[in-house]
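Instructor's aside before we start: the two examples that follow are unrelated to each other. I chose them only because their records fit on one page, so don't look for a connection. First example below.
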Amino acid sequence: MVRTALRVILEAEPDLVVVGEAATGPEAVSLVRSLAPDVVLMDVRMPEIDGIRATEQILATMPEPPRVVVVTTFENDAYVHDALRAGAAGFLLKRADPDELIGAVRLVARGDSLLFPAAVRSLAAAAARTAGAPRAAAARWVARLTDREADVLRLMATGLSNQEMSERLGVGPQTVKTHVAAVLAKTGSRDRTQAVIAAYEGGFMRKD
């Protein structure tokens, strides 16, 4: 029923096409590999292997993996952190309204990340338990950030899109993209979500 509802909502949009639908974790992994979609909506709780493990398998085995948005009925910070650590581009509750769902798909499809306050709280809590080695490694890349790149990373951690960062900083969208690319390179991150995780685990961002 949930998959049908999601399909109906997404297929009503002229710029979105649903190319596949899976009932189990292994089926999801297989379909994603064969269909190569741009975005995957991945349920946390799936038979055989859960959505977190399925996400890990997809991202680890595809040379150009899709953007994964993990969806669940449970507002649980552990799920948030596990999903983002697995490489998901974002996290969405199933009770999100249609506009939020559609916006989430479009957002991650264009390269942004879906980081809500709950996700940031989860990352901050995990960072508090992180020991010295990651923080020492982070100190090296933090020192290489320019002041503007540091500003961009802080705004990325609040969940702002490139357009929102452009407006906040008073610079053009292309300039923001250039700064984001530099941040990803210096933090050794595949995408914005990984960069934010690195920022929290390395002590660059604080829970306060």
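Example two begins here.
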Amino acid sequence: MSNDLPKVAWIGLGIMGSPMSENLIKAGYDVTGYTLEQDKVDRLAAAGGTGASSIAEAVRDADVIITMVPASPQVEAIAYGPEGILENARRGALLVDMSSITPQTSVDLAERARDKGIRVLDAPVSGGEAGAVEAVLSIMVGGEQADFDAARPVLDALGRTIVLCGPHGCGQTVKAANQLIVAVNIQACAEAVVFLEKSGVDLAAALDVLNGGLAGSTVLTRKKANFLNRDFAPGFRIDLHHKDMGIVTDAARNVGAALPVGAVVAQLVASLRAQGDGGLDHSALLRSVERLSGRPVGA
């Protein structure tokens, strides 16, 4: 390991966190990780990182602390309290929260960390599991320019499009907009798939030609196989997209922005979850359209 690279603590080794932390190890960083499931800590160790038995142990010597957990309550749980990050990290450490949470949670975290001499960035990502594995994520960041500049080399090992969007909370606001666009896009693709199939069209051929024109999108490129094969193994779970649609609809209400189509798709995501599909990939919005169209629901 190169001694001149900052020491990294990674909290949260799920679908996104595991491959992302491994990309930092490949880039030469010394990474110490902690998560609730021991087998995921073991996976990090097998990849060349160091497992920790607590948050306190993971963050104690870290220059940069990266968190990647599901939602605001988990961020608060790992950040606050005697066993949390703020009580155990050293002054001057840089905390980069890559979770997708409410903008207000990010603002509050930055404020409370400032009292401890800890710098904070909110840096949620887009690109899903494939983007995490390939290190091509889009990373939208909120915080101070100097802290962004300090974090940039680390973020460069994780993503391809890395942009400071404004002060604390702005990264989360842009991520909320991202989730709005993605959900509406998946819903439109799902409706097209059912329409095409009911019309007797060769679906694979249709999606290929559609993806070459103005209807093409990263969503369609990434999710085409999910639609064709009815493969809904989670890259990004409906449960999490449901949480994100709550964030964007609430934040939009707070600023007085109307999201008429987004509100409908938020309800479709909620209904899919109520049907027991919350653990499936968000491309499973297709199942909702199948039900509404009287088709047998795919795998």
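The chain has 14 helices and nine strands.
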